[in-house]
Design brief:
single chain, about 140 residues, alpha/beta, Cytidine Deaminase, domain 2, seven-stranded mixed β-barrel, 3 helices, about 40% strand, globular, binds zinc ion
Length: about 140
């Protein structure tokens, strides 16, 4: 399964992650889900209520409003993203423990190496089994295999 992400959206996430550094940033991801390709259409920055470098939680009210907006746009809620300011791009113990939605895609953007940010996407089953998905960052909506 390939997750296609526009360069513009990647940069939006990255800008937020840098802005909120050293805290984790978070947000919701919307798009279209196909058989083999999942296409991200928009990312929605959210407030990290925890204001922490190690975990995040979203404001339910804010979440509700964004989910409504996603529906209005005709997209699916694909999942969420958050940054790891100091740790690698993989789910932490806490991330797995809180991964209640097996259908969701969890994007993790690591700023461990400031000059080389790493973005990965995962599915998390049973709060323990982690599957890494292939992320393709594409420019201007172009998508070549
Ligand atoms: Zn995390």
């Amino acid at each position: 399964m390939i997750v296609k992400l526009d360069q513009r959206l990647y940069e939006k996430m990255l800008a937020q992650a840098k802005e909120e550094f050293p805290n984790e940033c978070c947000g919701l991801v919307a798009g279209e889900s196909g058989e083999d390709i999942i296409e991200v259409k928009e990312v929605f920055p959210m407030t990290n209520l925890d204001a922490s470098a190690e975990h995040f939680s979203m404001d339910p009210k804010e979440q509700f409003a964004v989910v409504k907006e996603i529906r209005c746009l005709g997209y699916d809620l694909l999942g969420n993203y958050h940054s790891h300011p100091f740790t690698p791009s993989r789910p932490s113990y806490e991330d797995k423990r809180l991964a209640y939605d097996e259908g969701a895609i969890y994007f993790i953007l690591s700023l461990k190496k400031r000059d080389e940010p790493v973005l990965n996407a995962f599915k998390i089953k049973g709060r323990s089994e982690v599957t890494k998905l292939e992320v393709k960052i594409v420019e201007g909506g172009e998508f070549n295999e």
